[in-house]
Every structure is written in C-alpha cells, then in structure tokens.
Amino acid sequence: MTGDADVDGFAPLRIKRVVRETADAVSLVLDVPERSSRRFRYQAGQFLTLRVNVGGQDVRRCYSMSSAPVEGELRITVKRDPGGLVSNWINDTAAEGDQIHAAPPEGRFVLRGDLSGATEVVAFAGGSGITPIMSLARAAVDDPDRRVRLFYANRARDSVIFADPLDRLVAEHGDRVLLHKHFDEDDGVVASAAIEAFIAPAGDAHYYVCGPGPFMDTVERTLLAAGVKESRVHLERFTVAAAAPSAIDQSGVAEEVVIELDRQSTTASYRKGDTLLQTVRSAGLRAPASCETGSCGTCMARVVEGSAHMLNNDALDDDEVEEGWVLTCQSLPTSRKVRINYE
C-alpha cells in the first residue's frame, strides 16, 4: 500500500469537476493527491476501478478514462445504463467536492508502442464506446507522425458523447484526423459494407474497437475478413455475454484447485460452474482482479498443472495463452486437478 490506499489498494480521490456530456452521460474530472500521483499514472485507453457505497453496499465497477495523459488530468466518462446501479448513481448524485475511491489504472487497450511501421490508428466506437477511443485519439495525435481515422456510430444525434471535442480535434489537426459519424436513425445499424468502405483507404494500421457487443462483433468479423491480422485488432468490451458452463466440456470433473499466491500454496475444493477467480475468493484469498470481463488482464495466472477453458479473452495474446496463462475471471477448470500460479 502507498499513501492512504486501503488494504484493497483503493485510494480516495476528490471529484474536481462534473461535466454533463449528454442527457445520460457525465464526465468526472478527478483530483489525484500528490502522494498518490505515481500510482495513478496511466496510459491512454486504460480504466479505473471505482468502489462506491450505494444503499449501504460496497460495489465495484470499471470505467474507462476519456482523457489522455498529455492533457494533464484524469477524467472518466460514465453513461447511464438501464438498471445500472453504479452508473445511475454517478449520473444522479456525483457532485464537485465529493470523494470517490479508486484503484490504480489498469487495462491493455492502449496504443501499441511498436506499431511495426504502422502510422495510422483506425478506431471504431459505438455509443459510449467512444470513451476509451477518445483517450486513444487524443494521445495519438500528440505524435505528429500519426494519423487517426475514427468511425463513430450512434443511434441518434442527441446521443453523441464528445460531439464538440471531436469536432475540435478534427479542426485542430487537419488532415491527420478523419471522423466519420454514423447514425442508425438515418442509415440503419452498422453493416459490414460501411466498415469495408471506411477501411478501404487505410494503410498499414492498428485497429481499436469498443462499443455494444453486436457492433464489435460486426467490426471484428469484417476486419478479419478483409485480411487485417488478428494481432492488429484490439478490442475493449464493457460487458461479456454470459456463457453457460454446461456448454463447456468439463468431463474432467474438477475436484480441487491449487492456488499459488504470494509465495503460499492453498488447496481449495472446486464447485462446478465457478470460475478459477471465484474459487480463489471462496478460499478466502485476495487475488488481483479488476474488470472481470476478460478485457484487462489484471487477474491473469498461469496454469502449471491440469487445464482450463477461457470463456472470453480480450487481453492475452497467443504466445501468452500458449505458455499457459489464463484470465482467472473467465476460466473454468477442465481437469480433475488444476494448479495455478500468480507469478
């Protein structure tokens, strides 16, 4: 622990400013105290895990930064979600001067340091998926050799988040920023043809995708069909469709999970249907975790004995998977005994 962070690593941050972006989306500019500044350094595209108390219950949720480090501030943007406990609480009650608890930035949805010769960033955002994309775009244009192409889809014009900031980004950077706005109310939901037309002029690029599940699936499928290498397609999912454990081959009938954490080994009984992370927690252990959607990589551990199946993986690359790494929040054991090591 550093500064005034608690045992779970959460530190109090003051809300410096509240910005109403749309009728159902708000940005919070957070004031990071000097004693916590090093822990809250971040890369564009990462997210914060917030812990808030709603109705007497501590709840954790992850929200992407919409600011970039070059701007010198830390800002998250939260869209109201029907039935969303924390997103609605933030939109309804967050006020300047309030205190909110956050864990340090996490996430792998960041600009790649070695673009392998690629100078273009091609991004696809749907609805509130613009939040991390905005962070990436602001960081990318700070490099005078990079171009940014952004396809932004919304249901209607009144739901566009960052309408004015996006227009300013285009105006300030001229031909280095191309913005295409798609509105379902005019052209229907985004189809492969629109994506193909948008990427046709793109050069050797990395592609970043964030938004509703069906939108992301369409974009990913179209990019891969167009010949884009999978290693150059980067996804950030806010939610993951639940997969039925019964659909996974657990014929190995797992009985126990051995957990190597903090130089200690703990053996836990396995309850069918639980993920490895749930098993770790049931054993009373505190393992690293954040998004719990398979996007950030915080909960990764290596399977050193036995086997496990990942329901979703938007964080680990093929080499890491080949070496036995799994996202414990998304992994079900598929052998009688599984040993995992949090190295």
TrEMBL record:
Its cofactor is FAD. CDD domains: fer2, PA_degradation_oxidoreductase_like. Keywords: 2Fe-2S, FAD, Flavoprotein, Iron, Iron-sulfur, Metal-binding, Oxidoreductase. Residues 8-112 form the FAD-binding FR-type domain. Residues 255-343 form the 2Fe-2S ferredoxin-type domain. SUPFAM superfamilies: 2Fe-2S ferredoxin-like, Ferredoxin reductase-like, C-terminal NADP-linked domain, Riboflavin synthase domain-like. This is Ferredoxin--NADP reductase.
